[in-house]
Amino acid sequence: MPPKNQRRKLPSPLPEGLILTDTNKKEWTLGKTIGEGGFGLIYLASPGRDKPVSNDAAHVVKVEYHENGPLFCELKFYQRAAKDNQIKAWVARHKMDYIGIPNYWGSGETKSSSTSYRFMVIDRLGTDLQKLLLSNGGKFPLNTIMQLGIRLLDVLEYIHEQEYVHGDIKAANILLCYTDPNKVYLADYGLSYRYCPNGNHKPYKENPKKGHNGTIEFTSLDAHKGVALSRRGDLQILSFCMLHWLCGKLPWDKNLKVPVAVQASKTKLLEELPNSVVNWAAQEDGCHAVASFMAEVYRLGYDEKPNYGVLRKILLNILESTGTRLGDPLTFSHVKAILKKPAAFNNPIIEHARSHSVSPGADRKLHFVANRDLQSSRLQKSPKVCMQ
């Protein structure tokens, strides 16, 4: 992982129409630039060399200087953990409709004006959630947050089972499908980390010199302490994102230039769950769901495998209480949802989220009830984890 606050130089633009040849000898024609990441540029692209790249091209090419690191890390992630056959087998085995990881089509190296570049071809995606947040007053509807949370849990469970963590979950890295805006994808694996190579989990070790890495608003407590990324860190980052989408802010927003203050604020919030979240976000329906999710993640040991089914169930119960199904269209304009008793939906997509990895006992334990006092009392009785 690159040192915090380091920003590498963006590459000089490559000429439109340049032909790139990937490691499998497949040719790609470069189109116009449509964006940039932290270290590279993103171009439209099309397979072959026979015609210009259209504005509705289905592929993009990410390009960075050869000596830069993030695209190399992303390539290794796709080559080891996200091959097309791996993803298709997982989706079929778990009876899912899709999983939100962009398809990888190829990669290679090229030269232009004596400068070496690395490139990678992936699916073109649509609007990112950060743009949608800005156009919707900084908040999303409750039902949409629960839909997003479940879909992102699907992605995280998959990549965690492939020995990787994402490390930088945030609205800017979550994008809608270009051809179907009701599908959501977690992109940008440039900071992904192999937390468990060959089945051997990295040991817990604090390193202040590497502290506060990641996006400061959302990064995990482990990252603040300079501990190597782990599964619980990814889930904690997701929980902070959901709290932000629900409330339009976070308790530590005014201290973002002081990382130790952000760390202290996050620690206090997590140690005093659920009241810390409930009291701070009392005006928001669904704050108990986020508090429940946070508490479940906070109980995890550093190298402990999460129960993704329990976490899904927390979110799914709230989703159903809004009268929304997991497969329903995503809506981003902020309309206040009316909570009601969860309905029994006979829907295969929901049944995957409802039943996957959830034991009957866990299902009963974490069934959401609308009565806030009862939910709070249940959470207060939950044991606190001893931080390593």
- What is the overall pLDDT average? 86
- What is the H/E order? EEEEHHEEEHHEEEEHHHHHHHHH
Name of the CATH class of the largest domain: Mainly Alpha
Number of domains: 2
Number of DSSP E strands: 11
Side-by-side strand order of the widest sheet: 1-2-3-4-6-5
Structural class determined from secondary elements = alpha+beta
What would the principal axes of the Cα set say about the shape? Answer: globular
CATH-defined topology of the largest domain: Transferase(Phosphotransferase), domain 1
User: What is the radius of gyration?
Assistant: 21 Å
The CATH level-2 architecture of the largest domain is identified as Orthogonal Bundle
Question: Largest sheet, described in full?
Answer: 6 strands, antiparallel
Note the beta-strand portion: 15-25%
Number of helices: 13
End-to-end gap: 22 Å
List unreliable stretches of 5+ residues.
1-6, 341-350, 357-388
**Share of helix among residues?**
25-40%
Task: Output the CATH homologous superfamily of the largest domain.
Answer: Transferase(Phosphotransferase) domain 1
